[in-house]
C-alpha cells in the first residue's frame, strides 16, 4: 500500500509524509468547520515543515481553491456580487504588482513573513471595514492579494473586512468564500506566469482536497461538541510553535 501511494506523489515527499499532510488536511477542515476560519493558516503552518516557501505558497493556494469552490457553488445566490467585483478588480492589480516584488525577495524573508503572520493571526487585532465602499474594497483586495503572494494566507484579514459589513451569516460566508476564491485563483495565475509548475503536485493537491471534504463533513458532527476555549488555546499553542520554527529557520537562512 505504501509503495502504491509513493508512486504518484512528489519525489520530495515520502508516503508517510503524505499521510501526515492528509491528516493535517482533515484536521484543519475540522477547524474551519467549527470556528469558521483558521483552517488555512493551520494547514499552511503544517505544510511549512515539509515544503520551502517557493513551493508552499502556490501549492497551498491550489488546495485552498478546493475548500472554497464548493461553498461558492452551493451558495452563489447569496454572494454580494458588487463586493466580489470590487475586491476582485483590486485583487488583480495587487497580485500582479506584488509579483514584481516577489522575484526580488531575499532567501529567508518569506519564512519570517509567514511566521510573523501566523503569530499575528493568533494574537493580533484584525481590521474592520464598517460599510461597503467600492474604493475601500478595491484597496483591500489589492493589499490582501499582494500579501497572499508572500505569506500565503490572508483569510483572517478578508473575513474581518467582510464581517464589518454586517451581512447575515449565510451572506457573509458566501461573499467571503467568493472573495477568497478570486484571490487564490489570481495567486495560481501569478505563480504560473512566474514559471512555477503545478503538474508534479496535482495528485497530491487532489488528495488533500478530497480528504479535506471528509474533514468538513465529519467536523460538523464532532468539533461543535468540544469546549471552544480549550480548543482555541491548543490551536494557538501549536501555531505559535510552528510560527517560531519558521522565523528561526528564516533567520538562519538569511
List keywords for this structure.
254 residues, mainly alpha
Quick take:
The protein is built from 11 helices and no strands. The chain is an all-alpha fold and 254 residues long.
Shape type: globular
Structural class: mainly alpha
What's the helix-strand series? HHHHHHHHHHH
Q: What proportion of the residues is helical, as a percent range?
A: over 70%
The average pLDDT is 79
- Catalogue the unreliable spans: none
Report the portion of residues in β strands: under 5%
First-to-last CA distance: 40 Å
Domain module tally: 1
Q: Enumerate how many helices there are, as a single number.
A: 11
In angstroms, what is the radius of gyration?
17 Å
Oligomer: single chain
Give me the count of strands.
0
The main sheet comes to: none
Can you describe what's shown?
With 254 residues, the protein is mainly alpha-helical. It has one domain (20-253). The protein contains eleven helices and no strands. It has helices at 2-6, 15-35, 39-47, 53-75, 81-102, 109-123, 134-151, 155-163, 169-193, 202-222, 228-253. The longest helix has 26 residues, at 228-253. The mean pLDDT is 79.
Blueprint of the fold:
Layout: H1 2-6, H2 15-35, H3 39-47, H4 53-75, H5 81-102, H6 109-123, H7 134-151, H8 155-163, H9 169-193, H10 202-222, H11 228-253
